[in-house]
Amino acid sequence: MGGEEEDQESPLLGIASQPDEPEEPLKRTGTLWTSIAYIITGVIGAGVLSLAWTVAQLGWIAGPLLMIVFAGITIISTNLLCDCYRHPDPECGPARIRSYMEAVKVYLGEKSQKVSGVLVLESLWGGAAAYVITAATSMRAIQKSNCYHREGHQAPCAYGDTFYMLLFGLVQIVMSQIPDFHKMEWLSVVAAMMSFTYSFIGIALGFAKVIENGKIMGSITGVPASTLANKLWLVFEAFGDIAFAYPYSIIVLEIQDTLKSPPPENQTMKRASMVAIFVTTCFYLCCGCFGYAAFGNDTPGNILTGFGFYEPYWLIDFANACVVLHLVGGYQSASICIL
């Protein structure tokens, strides 16, 4: 592999060019470490803060075990996708498959591409909606945290989400006007730092709460429910939360298209995926298990916005601000995928 083809770069989330269109002669500079940063940015999201509730529904055995199982499934599916980047040979094939949808078309045909396209767009739309809601909830949580600090933990401190959703939308309109937004590699680094920051804060607060309680809360079977049907519903909802915590399969090939070679891109991407999934799974286990150990059956849906913690209020405000900053960039990345 070499020559002028290696000196071309497509954006992280760009749309694959058609064979008859001339390509912009840019150089691919991606490395193992930049791809790890991209993956962590794509995987670790604000959903990590709800994993304590997920473990609470499943219990001490099934909760952590299922996180490990889903991590393994993600690694297997990612390795398969990595080998689809070059066609027909996964290491030295002349054709580059630069997006998930293009891979579906090449390997499964146009009919499968149309069906897959509907599902992918629906997934991306749902993810973007979740970004808006989560960002608004975190902004509202900052205001509520300050209210509780001033007026006491029993104060009503009720605020709506509509204003914050509109504010988030206004920010996205401004951000969407930035040219070549998808080429800002520093954005992924900043987003990854924000992810680590609020995850660390959630883990630290849970650990501190366990020490304060002097015991580990929770049970093997998880939170009891009034009926079997209600319990099954909560269990399946917990399954969905864990599955949603590893949502980067559709951008694997876009990330891989930023890598320089040699070594072959699929080898670098597989190593990056292994490292990134291992790191994120450790975060998930720590955040979910410490949160459940701290609150037991009273575990909130989100350990930062559900106000399992009230103090130190400034730390909770900072963590929620990190969530908002992360989602501002994440929403733009999702929008580029859709377009």
From TrEMBL:
It is found in: Endomembrane system. Residues 29-332 form the Amino acid transporter transmembrane domain. It comes from the Eukaryota. Keywords: Amino-acid transport, Auxin signaling pathway, Membrane, Symport, Transmembrane, Transmembrane helix, Transport. The keyword Acetylation does not apply. GO terms for cellular component: endomembrane system. The chain crosses the membrane at residues 32-53, 60-81, 115-136, 157-175, 187-211, 273-295. It is a multi-pass membrane protein. Its main location: membrane. InterPro entries: AA_transpt_TM (IPR013057). Pfam families: Aa_trans (PF01490). Residues 1-26 are annotated as: Disordered. GO terms for biological process: amino acid transport; auxin-activated signaling pathway. The keyword DNA repair does not apply. GO terms for molecular function: symporter activity. Carrier protein involved in proton-driven auxin influx. Mediates the formation of auxin gradient from developing leaves (site of auxin biosynthesis) to tips by contributing to the loading of auxin in vascular tissues and facilitating acropetal (base to tip) auxin transport within inner tissues of the root apex, and basipetal (tip to base) auxin transport within outer tissues of the root apex. May be involved in lateral roots and nodules formation. Belongs to the amino acid/polyamine transporter 2 family. Amino acid/auxin permease (AAAP) (TC 2.A.18.1) subfamily. This is Amino acid transporter transmembrane domain-containing protein. The lineage of its organism: Eukaryota, Viridiplantae, Streptophyta, Embryophyta, Tracheophyta.
